[in-house]
Amino acid sequence: MGSNMLTQEEIDALLNVSLEASGDEQEREVPTLSVTEKDTLGEIGNISMGTAATTMSMLLNRRVQITIPRVSITTPREISEKSPMPFIVVEVSYTEGLQGRNLLVMRTHDGAVIADLMMGRDGINPQSAIDDFVLSALSEAMNQMMGSAATSLSNMFNRTIVISPPTARVIDLGNEPLDSQLDSDEFLVKIAFSMTVEELIDSEIMLLLRVDFAREMLQLLAPQIERGGSEAVPIEAPTPAAHSKPSAPAPAAAASSGSHTITRRPTSQPVTVQAVEFQPIVPESATAQTGPGNLQLLLDVPLQLTVELGRTEKTVKEVLDLVPGSIFELDRVAGEPVDIYVNGKLIAKGEVVVIDENFGVRITDIISVVDSVTNLQ
Questions:
Q1: Global pTM?
Q2: Domain assignment of residue 209, yes or no
Q3: Is 201 in the same domain as 88?
Q4: How many domains would you assign to the chain?
Q5: Which structural domain, as residue segments, surrounds residue 189?
Q6: pLDDT tens digit string along 173-220?
Q7: Per-residue pLDDT at 245
Q8: Are 60 and 174 within 8 A, CB to CB?
Q9: Euclidean distance between CA atoms 101 and 74, whole angstroms
Q10: Which of 193, 86, 100, 173 is nearest to 134 (CA)?
Q11: How far, CA to CA in Å, does 54 sit from each of 141, 149, 345, 370, 371?
Q12: Average pLDDT of 57-65?
């Protein structure tokens, strides 16, 4: 029986191993985010992905909706254990303005639908196999989406932010690691969105950031948050005096000055009332020379620019008779300027040119405001 008993040295060795293991577990602390930090990161993701959704909506010609983000801490191992299935991982690296990268994770079916819509199909029956052609189309969509998101982040951080072209790949989380540059137990900030594309997609996408990269963005926004908080001044709406009872004594003394009345309430500080000052009406020619003002808030809104060569009308029979090689005449004389529309509104006229084997348009005339109103009427 003595041979089956552990010696004191073996007991000490086992105790040391268990103590070291418990010490390692205690040293590994899960990073925490405060409510303000979660809200800030959520706002960053909301602005960037909101702009990206607008761009995607224009690319796919479908209504794209993204819900309010949910911010949490996770690890690649936890993601793989919860969803051991193939996913499309889009990597976006920041080359200027920010130093880091993020991973956009979406389901393979969602990526196939987006690629199918980009190729001009209806997205109802996308191909099940994700090949290089699908990944190429998806990378192009993500390039434009994340490019517009980078523009929004540039305005938010007040600095130029440049990204490298995104790369898309398929990762089977049941058999492969999420990313070769990430440790399986490395803590990541997960910003989850619910995305819908009409009746074609109703799913969730994840934006994954390293914790130090998320901290860098929070530090860049910290001065703006503090400045915004110090400048915020609560405004109290004036209390209407028209509902006071006639029989009650006057609660305050009224001093009349011209047509304006100053009312003082005994329970509050004196309130100074000044005459309303209206800005002078400036002619249209003068306002055109002024600065952009609040127009800066709209500079990153994407607009659809369309060039129209001409129009014609055909009957249903004539349209059904069209075959490859058919020619029909437009209501435009050869050499006449083409029309340039922005979101369906005529803004300019131009002439067609060729630039490096691609068609282009040289603007020759800008439609005046008077002409635009006349066209609307």
A1: 0.53
A2: yes
A3: yes
A4: 2
A5: 28-226
A6: 888 888 888 888 899 999 998 888 888 888 888 889 998 888 888 888
A7: 42
A8: no
A9: 17
A10: 86
A11: 12, 10, 20, 31, 30
A12: 85
